[in-house]
Design a protein that fits this description.
7 helices; mainly alpha; 6% strand; translation elongation factor activity; 3-stranded antiparallel beta sheet; Glutathione S-transferase Yfyf (Class Pi), Chain A, domain 2
Amino acid sequence: MSLKELSSLEKALGLKKPNKYSTQGDRKVPVLQSINGPALVGLVTIATHLVQEAKRPELLGGSAEHKAVVQQWLEYRVTKVDGCHKEDIKTILKDLNSYLEDKVYLAGNQFTLADTLMYYGIHHVIVDLAVQEKEKYMNMTRWFDHVQHYPGVRHHLPPVVVLRNRVYTSGHH
């Protein structure tokens, strides 16, 4: 999956020349072989390199604090989301939902690389959620829907239908 994500990220960043990737190990860690340097290993390392190559530093955060929050969420993606067991996904969704209660994006009010990679990382889970589950994680679902409509993000993934109109009982006129 990481290789498709990196390819989609390249397109979203407007990089013209696609890179050649391979994977290593049982966990299929992505590797980017550089022409004039050592190979880059790991999703976050390669994605950060692509953002720098595209001259889009704002995607890595503006201030030192903002950069740290972006890095925190990139690390969360790789350590918690990737390869998580099915029983752990509810905790991840609950954590995201709680965190996003008063935020538009993972790093506050600015779209970053963390949003893109987290979106790619949880898409396969969200696509299978029932409407009731999406409503249970309303903040996370709002964020997810917002990110999937961000220009250029969704390349290799199908759109996820998110119910926009909440159904109210007759007591809420």
